[in-house]
Amino acid sequence: MSEAPASMRLDKWLWAARFYKTRALAVDEINLGRVRIGGQPVKPARDVRVGDLLSIRIGTLAREVSVLGLSHQRGPAPQAQSLYAETSASITAREAAAEARRLAPEPAATIAQGRPTKQDRRRLADWDRWSASLDDEDPG
User: Fold this and answer.
1) In this predicted structure, what is the pLDDT of residue 140?
2) Rounded to an integer, what is the distance from CA 38 to the centroid of its chain?
3) Which of 57, 73, 60, 65 is nearest to 12 (CA)?
4) Is residue 47 within 8 Å of residue 8, measured between CB atoms?
5) What tens digit of pLDDT does each residue of 50-80 get?
6) Is 84 exposed, middle or buried (0-12, 13-18, 19+ CB in 10 A)?
7) Contact in structure between 96 and 122 (CB atoms under 8 Å)
8) What are residue 8's DSSP bridge partners?
9) CB–CB of 35/42 below 8 Å?
10) What confidence tens digit (pLDDT) does each residue in 106-132 have?
11) At CA 77, angle to CA 90 and CA 92, rounded to 5?
12) H helix intervals, 7-137
């Protein structure tokens, strides 16, 4: 059995720790500045060592994790979760953000299909034109 490495590439560690599904996605996110080590933007080939503090932003979710272990293989989720520990400040911030989203959801998030198409607008205009109140009137 091979022993654990002393350091490894950041993109490979993010993939092994299951933050991203592929290494290519991890590289893209690192290049966009969504992954930082010690608050500094980094490159995908940057070496990660045990004890490093990473800031990872996935969508609106921001997490701070401390590297506990290194692995060149992507294993099952419990094994991947043993590679890092989320800081207590990050956990409380994440829970507060989840509670805020639950209490006051973003109005745009409820729109499932986006803007109405031209055909949808015409249907709405037709529906508006033929109101039920006009049909209910009795001419006699």
Assistant:
1) 53
2) 20
3) 73
4) yes
5) 999 999 999 888 999 999 999 989 999 999 9
6) buried
7) no
8) 48
9) yes
10) 776 666 777 878 888 888 887 766 655
11) 15
12) 10-16, 23-31, 77-81, 88-103, 118-129, 132-136
C-alpha closest to that of 52 among 39, 33, 62, 61: 39
State which amino acid sits at residue 14: L
> Which amino acid would we find at residue 53?
L
Residue with tokens 């979760």: 81
The token pair that represents 31 in the structure block: 């290049």
Report how many helices (DSSP H) and strands (DSSP E) the chain contains, helices first: 6, 7
> Scanning the structure block, which residue is given the tokens 């996110």?
29
**Token code pair at residue 107:** 């109005």
- The label of the residue with tokens 């091979």 reads 2
Which string of b and e fits 17-54 if b means at least 16 CB within 10 Å? bbbbeebeebbebbeeebbbbeeeebebebebeeebeb
- pLDDT tier at 1 (50, 70, 90 boundaries)? very low
Rounded Cα gap, residues 18 and 14, in angstroms: 6
Report the length, in residues, of the chain. 140
